[in-house]
Amino acid sequence: MSLMKSESIGKLVTALAIAKAAFNPVLKLSENPGFKRNGKASKYADLATAIQATEDPLLANGLVVSQFPVNDGERVGALTLLTHESGEYMGESFTLP
Fold it and tell me: Which residues contact 55 (CB under 8 A, 6 or more apart)?
């Protein structure tokens, strides 16, 4: 698999840099009781927390993250695309058995 992108990504990269400066911290608020360290459940940032910390700055800068299912024979996965209002995009897919 290789990175897929539009011919130009200059506007996308500029918008992403501005958006990233406005991201809120992605806090580790959820606990994983199945993985303990020193008797305490480990903490992690769940998907909802990551989206909440980043979505508003992305949208304010004309950026959208989308995911689509991928099926490659006996492998399944997802295609993730970062698109900009200019039409520029970049993305990558992954599959697992």
Answer: none
What is the rounded radius of gyration, in angstroms, for the C-alpha atoms of the chain?
17
Report the C-alpha gap between 79 and 70 in whole angstroms. 6
Surface-to-core class of residue 68, CB atoms within 10 Å of its CB (0-12 exposed, 13-18 middle, 19+ buried)? exposed
Residue owning tokens 């506007």: 11
Instruction: State the distance between the two ends of the chain, measured CA to CA, in whole angstroms.
Output: 15
**Average pLDDT over every residue of 24-49:** 93
* pLDDT value at residue 1: 61
pLDDT tens by residue, 63-76: 999 999 999 999 99
Q: Rounded to whole angstroms, how far apart are CA atoms 46 and 23? A: 16
